Amino acid sequence: MANHLHKGDLPADLFQGVDAVAVDSETMGLRLGRDPLCVVQISAGDGDAHLVQLDRATYDAPNLKALLTNPAVTKIFHFGRFDIAMFHLHLGVMTAPVYCTKIASKLARTYTDRHGLKDVTREMVGVDLSKAQQSSDWGAAALSEDQVAYAASDVLHLHAVRTRLDAMLVREGRDALARACFDFLPHRALLDVAGWEESDIFAHT
Q: Parallel, antiparallel, or unpaired for β 37-43 and 20-27?
């Protein structure tokens, strides 16, 4: 198990042959259009995490972009709506196909209102994530070891979380509904980018 930090882009063919990768990102804030994308972290579920510290002057990362758009590789997120929107804004790609463990949790774990990554990971796989570095400076020229470890932890367990949530979705008869939500998620992210971030266009009012 190791964390790997790459400058600018992923190495070519790093995830060749995998059918799913866990993905997350770190930004300078949570406001679309204002806060830049700084880091993208990815894991194949093998215990290793790969972090790309992006060149914010160009966002030229062809290998990363190819992975995010590869139709043969499912991208597993937790609250993918934000990451997908950020990737569209800064990398110019539409990420697909996708799976979101937060959506899966809300559909399967209706006995709780705790659907944050920390709570879901603790219950599903017994891992207690630290969020100490969540609000640190991700735009710094050099990332600290604590930042790298934090970013890695957000993707290392998502494959196992997905497996547990998939079993619950099947048990509750909501797996088809979940898949439909995942298919729609990139379009929901585009609505955010286009200005409907705070609006529910399906609501009556």
A: antiparallel
Residues pairing with 7 in the sheet: 53
Amino acid in the structure at residue 107 = L
Residue 132: strand, helix, or coil: coil
- Please name the residue ranges forming H helices in the chain: 62-69, 80-91, 101-108, 117-125, 145-156, 158-171, 175-191
Domains and their CATH numbers in the chain: 3-196 (3.30.420.10)
> Are 111 and 172 within 8 A, CB to CB?
no
Buried b (16+ CB within 10 A) or exposed e, 82-103: bbbbbbbbbbebebbbbbbbbb
Q: What is the pLDDT of residues 104-149, one digit of tens each?
A: 999 999 999 999 999 999 999 999 987 665 679 999 999 999 999 9
Q: Tokens standing for 136?
A: 């640190």
Instruction: Summarize pLDDT for 19-28 with one digit per residue, the tens.
Output: 999 999 999 9
- Predicted TM-score (pTM) of the model is 0.96
Amino acid at the residue 55: D
DSSP for 70-96, please give it. -TTSEEEESSHHHHHHHHHHHH-----
